[in-house]
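Quick illustration, no need to memorize.
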Amino acid sequence: MDIIAIAKDVLNLEANELNRQANLLDDKFQKAVELAFKCKGKLIITGVGKSGHIAAKIAATLASTGTPSFFLHPTEALHGDLGMISTSDTVLAISFSGESSELLAILPHIKRRGIKIIGMAKSGSSLHHLSDEFMSLDILKEACPLGAAPTVSTTLTLALGDALAVCLMKLRNFQKEDFAMFHPGGSLGKRLYLKVSDVMRKENLPIVSDDVSLKFAIDTMTHGKLGTVLLTDKSGELVAVLSDGDLRRALGEPNFDINANAISYATKNPRVLDNENLLAYEALKLIEEYKIQILVVTKDKRPIGALHIHDLTSLGL
């Protein structure tokens, strides 16, 4: 049995069906999108079985991309959850066959209240006839050799749901900043939401005077847990940084003197950031560009914080 050949057949069959469906899209799909866009309330997605699983994913995608939405199970709807649908909502009902009894049982109650229904099913099905607008799930064949397990049909359903979500995003002019608002804990959300001031180290910064000895600076570095010491002049302005890298290089010098002034071995005029409101992701890009471990944050040339590359990467930026 050639497993790879079987897998390729499945993927090719599904890909070919998606391409075929793309060429079949017409004003019916556009009208369905427009009805969803005009909805003043929520776009409620419902379906049972495999269609129900896909419906839940579509609802989650819509909700995260600017279209208020949630999944409603038809059986629960028959036992009280119909009250979750308001007259300002629109329902997207999904059933490949278009004949799912649990789904069909709730649609007359929905229509009786004047709520619009977008159907996604086989053409000519009961769901098709009950729908105000319709998206066809007419496929050539399933990938399942028995023609029983939903495969191509569920892939098409999911893809149409993605197409609907993206069309609505475009119509709503949904931007990255909007996406971040709904995903503050996600990677993109953090990139567009977290500022330097939110993540920089502010407390107990390892700051010493620029006239201290290297021995004193090393002790401060050890307790500072930053791998770097910040050297300031009498006015408090940053003049140099002494990193563990600077220290290792100093140890290799023939005239190394632990009692010498630390600034003799420090990096003068270090890279700094004077904008604590910069996005943390942008600061990370600066750290990578400068090929440094720590970026000192200053205000009026005085150190107010420090950004370590490990702190930023640990956030998933």
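The mean pLDDT is 91.
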